[in-house]
Design a protein that fits this description.
alpha/beta; 17% strand; 44% helix; 8 helices
């Protein structure tokens, strides 16, 4: 029986965890790459009889993660799968504040996890599966902050803007191939995750937009991680996925 293979980063919490939970349905096989494994996912996978592999890997080492992924994919038999999808979800917010007060190591970590690793994982995924002859998809989880500048968020905005643009380039590359992958950088909307907690908990002196993020929570305008995961996975399953290289789940 052929399976749908999914590779998901940042699966141990937030929307990534919610996506992993929703992907644990019969007919799927899931590889999760996160800093920490999640016991609940392992239990759910056993109960649902879904093959699950969890790698504990810090994505600030994108080179190591991408080489490990390339080697793993090359050891698989394409005939066992009906489709294969890479979902780059992991990301971090560097210390909130103006760029003039940024810490160089903190910025480097955020850019490695949020931009460098997704780019390296895409390269490894596309190269290793190029001749598989089955539908291949890359979904990069972007953000509205990749398209709209915000004070005190230069590092995160830069990572997401870079993700959007390399996805555009990747789409052009794949369109030239007979069986190129369908790719998209998708903004998932405003979600109530640990990242939102960081933003609304920031000092107003360091983050001029803090009040706006606090109001989103107060007014109930945030999607839950479960709702957002469902919307994102529904977008991935759309027949027109990849027609837009950069998109927003809200349309």
């Amino acid at each position: 029986m052929t399976q749908h293979l999914y590779i998901l980063t940042g699966a141990s919490r937030g929307m990534g965890l919610a996506m992993a939970q929703q992907l644990l349905t019969p007919g799927n096989k899931l590889l999760c790459i996160s800093r920490h494994s999640h016991d609940g996912l392992a239990t759910a996978a056993q109960q649902n009889h879904v093959p699950l592999t969890q790698w504990t890997h810090d994505l600030s080492d994108g080179q190591g993660a991408s080489q490990r992924l390339r080697d793993w994919l090359k050891g698989l038999h394409a005939s066992a799968y009906a489709s294969v999808s890479l979902i780059n979800n992991a990301g971090v917010i560097p210390r909130i504040g103006p760029l003039s007060q940024a810490d160089a190591a903190d910025l480097a970590q955020a850019l490695r996890v949020g931009l460098e690793a997704p780019m390296q994982l895409c390269a490894a995924f596309l190269e290793a599966t190029e001749h598989w002859g089955i539908p291949r998809k890359v979904l990069n989880i972007s953000s509205g902050l990749g398209r709209n500048a915000m004070a005190s968020q230069a590092g995160y905005c830069a990572a997401k803007a870079g993700m959007d643009h390399f996805t555009r380039c990747m789409a052009l590359d794949e369109a030239l191939k007979p069986h190129g992958a369908k790719v998209c950088a998708l903004a998932p909307g405003v979600i109530d995750t640990d990242m939102q907690v960081q933003l609304r908990g920031a000092a107003t002196a360091a983050f001029p937009d803090q009040a706006r993020f606090a109001q989103l929570k107060e007014k109930g305008l945030l999607s839950s991680a479960t709702q957002a995961a469902s919307q994102v996975l529904a977008f991935l399953a759309r027949p027109d996925f990849g027609e837009q290289a950069v998109a927003d789940v809200r349309g």
